[in-house]
Amino acid sequence: MEEKESKDILSRIQAMERELSFLKERVLSQTKTETPKQQTPPVSKPTPVHTHQAEVTLGEGPNWFVQWIGENLFVKLGVFSLLLATIWFFYLAIEEYWINESVRIWIGLISAIPILIYGFRVRHSRPYLSPSLLGLGIAILFSAYYSGYLWYDLYSTETCFVGLLILSLTTVATAHAEKSEVLFGFASLGAFSVPLLLSTGQNSYPFLFTYLLLWNLLFFWVRKDKDWKVIPLLLLCANHLIFAGWANDKLEESKPFFPILFQLGVFVLFLLREFQTLESKKSKDLVLNLVTIGFTLGLGFLQSYWAFSIFYPIAKPFLLTLILILFYGLYERSIRRTALNLEKKKLYDLIGLFGLPFIVSLIVIGTTGKFLAFSLISFAFLVTVASTYSKQLYMYFAAFPVWFFALFYIFAFTYRSQNEIPFLNGRFLVFATGSAYLVLSYLYSRKFSDLSKLFLYAAYPYWLLGTFVEIYLGFPEEKQLFLYTLSLILYGFIALSVGFGKKIQSLRYVGFGSLALVIIKFYLYDFWNLSLGYRISAGLFLGITLIVTGTLYNHFKKETK
To answer: Keyword annotations for this protein (predicted)?
Structure first.
């Protein structure tokens, strides 16, 4: 009945507003037609007008944080101070034996009732105070009930567990109804403390992880359509802290099913919840959501690495790869379900980078030696191609440090092994592959970013560096200087020929640069240090190359202008 009456009243108000606006327009139209033209009055001397600055409220002014401290932080600190004072008073009463055991418990239980009632009554009038008072009352109930079990053995472990669980679930229901993140934080603190407080020292990890996983499922459901930011991050850390505390002593003695199931469950639930929040909220409010996603991936990967190292050490790289595939699968699912604007795309580009360090660590874990160097270079190339294909500039930038590390990792293996043939070994294959990948990266991404030129500028020096390494490790010292000069002449001539033939200006620069190095090296160093036979050979090759180069230049001189 009340809803029907309120709707009738609203409809009447709207009708009256429409009629009032119609009458106003009619009066204004009549006054315009009836008012004769008036002569312009003489201009009077303007009188100074004293303006007074309107008072700015505290919430609108620059000191908004003062209001937040006064209304929010001070209230919570006051409630916390009352809680400390209450605890100290009971401690003193227990020390002096002013009250006996059963009275102590009843005092704690009864004293929480008025706090809860008052906190519930002011939930609308004092929204900052109400959750803190309700949390204080629940904390007193929780502490008093647990004290009866811990100090006085008034009931069994099972009874205490059921009572604390009912209290936590009641708090969750209240937090869900009131949409209070603070109250849910009190409930979460109690729920995660229950198995720790009631632990008897036995390794009952199936019950522990099943209980925690059910609690995380409840959180996944309760947080739906709620803009909670801090509690998810705290719950994520609580899950992993409990797991780490248990696994430090008990992981090697347990079986893999429940620990791995718990880690996968927490990983999937938190990623699903945070991605759903990204899909529905504005980007400017999602900093803590991004932090939670990053911690979910990072902590989940590290804990899984720990568990797989114990249970499946051989298959560890493969299983960790599945973890990352699962992350990117949920990531792609969220992208498909989101209407991407510019800000959302930047957010998802940033999230896409979260997995890159872990992919690199997988490569390091799964391979060794020259194959590891080859894998790192291939991964850097794939990241560049993927970022160009998906138009993700953040990932494109992130590929550069991976490239730098991958290209020079091969120098950890710059030694000559037995029966190694120069230029026909795994080390030179890494240099050759790296140079080819750099050229392909330039060709593929040159229309996407101007930084692609860095790939082209690095390709030839890297190939030349690999050649010098092979000469240094594979030939005697008396031949090395000549082979350095010969390789520069050969590569320079090839670059010039292809550059003139295919009309590629950059290859011409490479060829001229190589020949310039040869000329400088020949006259400043080789001429004084090579033996006579090598000097003759070097001079012969250099002279022929320079003559051919000059001929090519004159032939194509119109194109080079």
So the answer is: Membrane, Transmembrane, Transmembrane helix
Of the candidates 262, 338, 345, which has an alpha carbon nearest to the alpha carbon of residue 307?
Answer: 262
Instruction: Give, in order, the Cα–Cα distances in Å from 402 to each of 177, 332, 361, 388, 397.
Output: 49, 23, 11, 16, 10
Going by C-alpha positions, the residue among 309, 307, 214, 339 that lies closest to residue 266 is: 214
Token output for 430: 């890494």
* Whole-angstrom distance, CA of residue 215 vs CA of residue 236: 12
467-509 per-position pLDDT tens digit: 888 888 888 877 777 787 777 777 777 777 777 676 666 666 7
Buried b (16+ CB within 10 A) or exposed e, 61-75: eeeeeeeeeeeeeeb
Encoded amino acid at 329, one letter: G
Rg of the chain over CA atoms, in angstroms? 38
Per DSSP, the three-state class of 42 is coil
First-to-last alpha carbon distance for the chain, in angstroms, is 91
> Which token pair is 412?
């950890």
CA distance 313 to 294: 25
CA 86 to each of CA 82, 83, 111, 137, 168: distance values in angstroms, whole numbers, following the listed order: 6, 5, 10, 12, 21
CB of 200 closer than 8 Å to CB of 249: no
More confident residue, 360 or 63: 360
Centroid of chain to Cα 35:
69
Residue 171 CB coordination number (10 Å): 27
Neighbours of 425 (CB within 10 A): 17
DSSP letter string over 252-289?
Answer: GGS-SHHHHHHHHHHHHHHHHHHHHHHHHS-GGG-HHH
DSSP 172: H
- Tokens encoding 539: 């001079």
Full DSSP string of 276-337: HHHHHS-GGG-HHHHHHHHHHHHHHHHHHHHHHHHH-STTHHHHHHHHHHHHHHHHHHHHHT
Print burial letters for 474-490: b (CB count within 10 Å at least 16), e (below 16). beeeeeebbbbbbbbbe
pTM of the model: 0.59
Give the SS3 label for residue 225. Answer: coil
CB 384 within 8 A of CB 396: yes
Distance CA 275, CA 521 (A): 60
Give, in order, the Cα–Cα distances in Å from 510 to each of 287, 445, 516, 554, 558. Answer: 47, 21, 10, 18, 19
Cβ neighbours of 353 (radius 10 Å) = 17
Whole-number Cα distances in Å, 506 to 496, 500, 510: 10, 10, 6
* Cβ count within 10 A of residue 547: 10
Task: Indicate the DSSP class of residue 530.
Answer: S
Structure tokens, 11: 């409809």
Structure-token pair, residue 247: 């696994």
